[in-house]
Design goal:
Elements (H helix, E strand, L loop, with lengths): L1 E5 L2 E5 L5 H7 L23 E4 L6 E2 L10 E3 L3 H17 L14 H9 L22 E3 L9 H10 L4 E4 L6 E4 L12 H5 L5 E3 L13 E6 L8 E7 L2 E6 L13 H5 L14 E4 L2 E4 L2 H19 L4 E5 L5 H14 L5 E3 L5 H12 L9 H4 L3 E5 L3 H4 L1 H12 L3 E5 L11 E3 L6 H15 L9 H4 L3 H4 L9 H10 L3 E5 L9 H15 L2 E4 L6 H6 L6 E2 L3 E2 L3 H11 L11 H10 L4 E5 L3 H4 L3 H10 L2 E6 L11 E4 L8 E4 L5 E4 L11 H11 L9 H11 L8 H4 L34 E5 L14 H6 L5 E3 L1 H7 L6 E6 L2 E9 L7 E4 L15 E2 L6 E2 L3 E7 L1
Parallel strand pairs: 1-5, 15-16, 15-24, 17-18, 17-20, 18-19, 20-21, 24-25, 25-26, 29-33, 30-32
Antiparallel strand pairs: 1-2, 3-4, 3-5, 6-9, 7-8, 10-11, 11-12, 13-14, 13-26, 22-23, 27-28, 29-36, 31-32, 31-36, 34-35
Length: 854
């Protein structure tokens, strides 16, 4: 225990810290400009100087470590004089434009000058003149206001790891500049905005539109984009979102955001939002009243159920909807429609992997704290780029690398390019063989722990079947690093799941997780992929992960819901599509998703949707799938409703309503009304009443309340009872890898600035990344004779498209990458698929492509 005295107040510390931190812990404020709690102490501004007994000179509190018996004074006439002099120096160059500056009202320099002075300047030097720059699409910079605290540069280099800006010039001409002078050309996380104490860096999204004191309300909520679940504060004026900002100490993101979270909110106020229900009449979608549209849906679904049974109806839930909405949706499908044909687009990645992993290792195997990544000694990344899929999780990996962890990347991960210790490039589309061989090598040393998973049977004859895999550069280094590491983390992305042999890769990851006692993380592209599974939006599970074929569990839900639940497991996502094409599924209800764009095999999906007798789409926008629907129902967005999301840690978090809406309805309300019209009333008052029911009927959520969730610590297994794993099937050791001899293979790219098809309605994100770009490696560019920016035509067996080209030096094989976020040019429509026989996820590897320069 360390005890010191600050301003005659005794302060006790349970760990070493600086005098500045000790003072803040005691409620004593010491002024700073260069210090920020997210950054390392710098001691540059000198405003935090304090007097310390038995020290002859003033000391900087941010760099001085508190010692036992130390006596500190933070305010005195001498200290005030020094601080006033420092501020006077800063005002030599800093313009006195507070009435015009957007930072006024939250400017730290303004506050300090107001407290300490100087009231008049004694220096007659001419102020420096630096033209204000508006060349960037998102950020504007005014270097006349810069006080050279270097917070922005230290944030970019030491925390974000982007290293996109630096201090330029010397003396009074020192200023911050991006390396590309016209624009920042960076990751656009905007975290430099958060730490800038003055108005030197501002966002163009809200510049000159409001002042801090004009904000009507501030609402703490969570992000609507990926599965990390970053906390944020939504600032609202006149029922419009003016700004989204992080708050230090709030949530697991610790004051950091990514580009999507900070700048991607504009879709909420998009003019493209649906404003009224649409019903197809005489082949055309026409406006209808809510009562007309809902009654039409209820009558058509009831008619199909009576004619062909509930199995002729299917539903697709959404990982963008809340837990409460997904719970009501699956209950509606099972009880009102009489069908277990419930799935989501998560089946193409997260849901497929999680189900198989939990069958092998038990429920909750992926429920690991993101903070744990920072403390890992070895991190194995496979199947995706955490830096683009889950950017804040990617920052945790970067931080671990800076702390000395070995980061091994299998395949392509652009966001970790400068943070990779071991880079492994297996032969094309043979990543699962590499992981199996790695498992075999680890198992030979840790074999005693392999009994549970029967590792020997699962990987028998691997070494003979895959010659050359174990000789891959970096293989032995990774194997020894894993065996020597006391703390290992494995990060698995959907790239290995969307493979016709993806179950083998998942099995290998499960084996490594078990043998190495590693933490396992699944990348999640959407905010509630875990939650919709936990709510029962899968064909074989009830809420809380209870299997449908267990009659004890089923009977309890039937008693709570007041009716029988269909006995047989339903169809998975791609089986629903094939069932629609074959006429076994006559009606499909889609809540909050766009399968025509977000699933591979575009022509086949379109054929399946056309074959339906009745298609209902519930969304904020008239999507490509919505244009094919018989009824389109306007839903509300993330900031217009309340509820909960479950992130990849399996942490349940509150989503709070920030703004109203004038056109749509909350998804659960729409389902609630349709269900009542079909003869199965569900009388919910609000989202909280739905969670109360979930807590009553699901053993996993027993006694869980909004009050407890609001504290931010609702972590797995809550108050519930998780189930143990049960292995149903082991992968075959050898399963024909196929021959990949084409010149180019098309693969999806996860873009940092976009997510699904929602982000294309955000003007800021569209300004950063306005169109799809085909990315190829340098070797492929030489083969084609193309240069950066050339336009090319890409053709596959499913279609073709024209795109600008970009050369990406992190691509080392003959894969070419294309995003799936832009209207009319998504990569998945050009790709066919084969179902994985175990996970039932669509495998999209091996899509041959022809590229022609235009």
């Amino acid at each position: 225990m360390i005890t010191l005295t600050i301003n005659d107040k005794e302060v006790s510390l349970d760990r070493p810290m600086s005098v500045l931190e000790a003072a803040r812990q005691a409620g004593i404020k010491i002024p700073t400009l260069c210090y920020h709690e997210a950054l390392k102490p710098y001691g540059g501004c000198r405003l935090c100087v304090v007097e310390v007994e038995r020290m002859p000179k003033l000391q900087t509190a941010c760099t001085l470590t508190a010692a036992d018996g130390m006596v500190v004074r933070t305010e005195s006439e001498m200290i005030a004089k020094v601080r006033r002099g420092i501020l006077e120096f800063l005002l030599i160059n800093h313009p006195l434009d507070c009435p015009y500056c957007d930072k006024a009202g939250e400017c730290e320099l303004q506050d300090l000058v107001n407290k300490y002075g100087a009231t008049a300047g004694r220096y007659r030097e001419e102020k420096r003149k630096v033209p204000e720059s508006h060349k960037d699409h998102i950020l504007t910079r005014n270097m006349e206001r810069c006080i050279v605290c270097t917070r922005c540069v230290r944030m970019c280099n030491d925390v974000q790891g982007a290293s996109a800006i630096a201090m330029m010039g010397r003396g009074g001409h020192t200023r911050m500049e991006p390396f590309s002078s016209a624009s920042f050309n960076c990751e656009y996380c905007g975290n430099c905005l958060s730490v800038c104490p003055v108005g030197a860096i501002l966002s163009r999204l809200y510049i000159h539109s409001f002042r801090p004191w004009q904000v009507d309300t501030e609402v703490e909520t969570v992000c609507s984009y990926c599965g990390v679940g970053c906390s944020m504060v939504v600032q609202v004026r006149d029922d419009l979102i003016k700004r989204v900002v992080p708050r230090m100490g709030l949530g697991l993101n610790r004051g950091l955001l990514c580009s999507r979270g900070r700048f991607g909110y504009e879709y909420i106020h998009s003019q493209d939002r649906l404003k009224t229900p649409l019903v197809r009449r005489n082949g055309k979608l026409e406006q209808a009243t809510w009562s007309e549209a809902l009654r039409h849906v209820a009558e058509r679904l009831t008619g199909i159920k009576k004619a062909d049974g509930g199995s002729a109806i299917a539903g697709i839930a959404s990982a963008r909807c809340t837990n409460e909405e997904n719970y009501v949706f699956q209950k509606f499908m099972r009880m009102a429609c009489g069908s277990n044909n419930i799935d989501s687009l998560s089946r193409a990645g997260f849901a497929a992997a999680q189900k198989y992993l939990e069958e092998l290792l038990g429920q909750g195997i992926t429920a690991n704290m993101i903070e744990g990544l920072k403390n890992s000694e070895v991190i194995l990344v496979a199947g995706g780029d955490p830096g683009t899929v889950n950017p804040v999780l990617g920052l945790a990996i970067r931080e671990a690398f800076r702390r000395g962890a070995k980061v091994a990347v299998v395949g392509h991960a652009r966001g970790l390019e400068r943070f990779t210790s071991i880079r492994l490039t297996p032969p094309l589309f043979r990543e699962e063989e590499f992981l199996e061989e790695l498992l075999a090598g680890v198992s030979r040393v840790r074999g005693l722990r392999g009994e549970k998973l029967d590792v020997d049977r699962g990987i028998r004859a691997i070494s003979d079947a895959y010659p050359g895999i174990s000789g891959l550069e970096g293989f032995d280094e990774l194997k020894h690093a894993l065996l020597d590491s006391p703390s290992t983390s494995i990060v698995l992305g959907s790239g290995l799941v969307q493979h016709s042999r993806g179950h083998r890769a998942i099995f290998a990851v499960a084996g490594l997780t078990y043998l190495l006692e590693a933490r396992l993380y699944l990348l999640a592209e959407r905010p509630n992929e875990q939650g919709l599974i936990d709510m029962g939006c899968v064909p074989e599970m009830l809420p809380g992960g209870r299997p449908l074929n267990n009659h004890d569990y089923t009977r309890k839900f039937e008693e709570a819901w007041g009716g029988p639940i269909p006995e047989e497991d339903g169809m998975t996502l791609m089986e629903i599509m094939e069932g629609a094409k074959e006429g076994r599924v006559r009606a499909l209800y889609i809540m909050g998703d766009n399968p025509l764009v977000n699933l591979p095999g575009g022509p086949l999906i379109e054929e399946a949707l056309k074959a339906l007798d009745f298609l209902v789409v519930q969304d904020m926008f008239l999507t490509e799938t919505g244009r094919m629907a018989d009824v389109v129902l306007p839903a509300v967005g993330w900031s217009e409703k309340s509820g909960t999301y479950t992130n990849i840690e399996r942490r349940i978090q509150l989503l709070r309503k920030a703004v109203g809406n004038s056109s749509g309805m909350e998804d659960w309300k729409i389902i609630n009304d349709v269900s009542g019209m079909m003869g199965y009333p569900m009388a919910y008052e609000d989202a909280e009443s739905i969670m109360d029911e979930i807590a009553r009927v699901s053993p996993l959520y027993r006694d869980l309340t909004y009050r407890e969730i609001g504290k931010g610590n609702s972590l797995w297994p809550y108050h519930g009872e998780p189930l143990r794993g049960e292995i149903h099937e082991l992968p075959a050791a050898v399963n024909g890898t196929g021959s990949y001899t084409a010149n180019f293979y098309l693969a999806p790219e996860k873009v940092l600035f976009h997510s699904g098809t929602t982000s294309r309605h955000s003007q800021a994100l569209m300004r950063i990344c306005p169109e799809p770009v085909l990315r190829i490696g340098p070797a492929a560019a030489d083969t084609l004779g193309v240069r950066e920016g050339d336009r090319v035509k890409v053709s596959t067996s499913s279609g073709s498209g024209e795109f600008p080209l970009s050369i990406d030096r992190t691509i080392s094989d003959n894969r070419v990458l294309l995003s799936n976020n832009f209207e009319g040019s998504g990569v998945l429509r050009l790709m066919s698929y084969r179902l994985d026989p175990v996970t039932r996820a669509p495998g999209i590897e091996g899509c041959e492509a022809t590229i022609t320069r235009l």
